[in-house]
Each structure stands twice: as structure tokens, then as C-alpha cells.
Amino acid sequence: MSTSARSHKIQPKNLAFNIRSKHQNYNSLGGHLAQRLVQIGVSDVFSVPGDFNLALLDHLVAEPQLNLIGCCNELNAGYAADGYARSRSVGACVVTFTVGGLSIMNAIAGAYSEDLPVICIVGGPNSNDYGANNRILHHSIGLADFSQELKCFQQITCQQVVVNNLDNAQEQIDGAIAAALEHSKPVYISISCNLPGLSHPSFLRNPLPFSLPVRYINFFNIIYILINIINGHMYVYLLGTTPPI
């Protein structure tokens, strides 16, 4: 092994907080969202690519502190984010509009019932398509109504935002992420497909003071259960399979 090879060290990911990719635009909406995810402790994002979220995924891929994990379907991505939130306190997933959003709903509903902060990001329609004369899109269910997916997520998330203009995008994104951490519940963030690469002065603001709530374990209940198991008042069942003869 050469001297140069021996001297080369791979820097741990958690020590690379200040390293920024030369391909990333941190003044853009996509770069802002990527940095917010990193700042709250997310290092893996579970996704299913679709035509409405491809531009956003490009910005997440460009973030050196994020690992984009492609999943075979939206439900898997949602449950992966659920499990990630259980071990890392917060999870994130990215899908496409309606066809992806409706597919991930079971997982998000489960995270809601389990008090897990999962940030569900959806690549939404072009911002120019919003208005009184909405077009029927191939992602919709046959109606010129872009709010169908939003109405579904209102029942299983603590906050929902539809980002289709830059003026209040920073406030919407940061507010939704803060709500997820504060209430320990999933949130829904829809981002128009034409906005991730656009810049706005608000994306230069300092990070908000995000903090994860401390989860306390009731040790008295644990001791009570262990005592009852030892005394024979409670039973532990182990499920397994019998090897073939």
C-alpha cells in the first residue's frame, strides 16, 4: 500500500456538518429543505421517484450529509421512515403527487397513532397549474381538484402545507418541521415540482432553534412487569417455527 493510500482517511459523516457540495444551491428551496432535514438529525431519506419530485430529489442527492434511499413502493418508504423515526427520533420520506401520496397513507396513519414525527414530502403540481381552472392531471383521480390528497392527509398529520410560491415557502417548510418535532406527529409538505431549484432571500435566514422532545421511559412500569414475570403472575410467549424433520 502506498504512503498516500495509508494517509488517506475517510471523514465520518457526523463530522462533516460544515461540508457543502459544490453542486448544491443552498439559496434554493430544495437546498433549504435539505439543510433543514440535516439540522434536525435526518441522515437518510426514503423515497420513490416520480415525475413531480425528481427536481426535489436532485437537491436531496446533492446534499452530502443526506443519503437518499430508493424504495420499491411508497408504503415501504413510509414504514421505513416510521422505523427510522423510532430509532432516530424523526424520519422523512419523499413521494410524488396523489399516486404516491395515497399509497403512503397507511404508514403515515400508523406513525400518527404511534406519535412518531415523520416528515412526508410530496412533489406537487406545477405552481402555474394552481387556480380556478385547475387542469385534470394524470396524477389525479379524474377531477380538476388538487386538494384531494391534502384533505386525506388532514386526518393523519398534525400540520399540512402546500408550497406553491416562494414568498412564504421558508415559513411553511420551517413551520411544518417544527410542528412535527413539537407534537411528535407526522406532517405533510407538498412542494410544487417547478420550485426546488428557485432561490429566495428567506432561505438565507439562520436555522430555527429546532429541538427534539425528550422521551421518558416509565421505569416503574418496567420493574413492575419484571417482578410479575419472575413471580409467575405474567407469562412470556416466544413464537417460532419448528424445523422440518
Summarize the SSE layout with pairings.
Elements: H1 3-7, H2 29-39, E1 44-47, H3 54-62, E2 67-70, H4 74-88, E3 91-96, H5 105-113, E4 118-124, H6 148-153, E5 159-163, H7 169-183, E6 187-192, H8 219-230
Parallel strand pairs: 1-2, 1-3, 3-4, 4-6, 5-6
Helix pairs in contact: 2-3, 2-7, 4-5
CATH topology: Rossmann fold
Major sheet: order of its strands? 2-1-3-4-6-5
Strand portion:
5-15%
Gyration radius over CA: 21 Å
Number of domains: 1
Order of helices and strands: HHEHEHEHEHEHEH
Distance between the termini: 51 Å
Q: Give me the secondary-structure category.
A: alpha/beta
Low-confidence stretches: 1-22, 213-217
- The CATH class, by name, is Alpha Beta
Query: Number of helix segments?
Result: 8
Short description:
It comes from Cannabis sativa. By secondary structure, this protein is of the alpha/beta class.
Structure in words:
- The chain is of the alpha/beta class and 245 residues long.
- It has a single domain (16-215), classed as Thiamin diphosphate (ThDP)-binding fold, Pyr/PP domains (Rossmann fold), CATH 3.40.50.
- Helix content is 33%, strand content 13%.
- The chain contains 8 helices and 6 strands; from the N terminus they run ααβαβαβαβαβαβα.
- The chain has helices at 3-7, 29-39, 54-62, 74-88, 105-113, 148-153, 169-183, 219-230; strands spanning 44-47, 67-70, 91-96, 118-124, 159-163, 187-192.
- Strands 2-1-3-4-6-5 form a 6-stranded parallel beta sheet, with helices on both faces.
- Strand 5, helix 7 (169-183) and strand 6 (187-192) form a beta-alpha-beta unit.
- Helix 2 (29-39) runs parallel beside helix 7 (169-183) and helix 4 packs parallel to helix 5.
- The radius of gyration is 21 Å and the shape is globular.
- It starts with a helix and ends in a 15-residue tail after the last helix.
- Mean pLDDT is 83; it is low at 1-22 and 213-217.
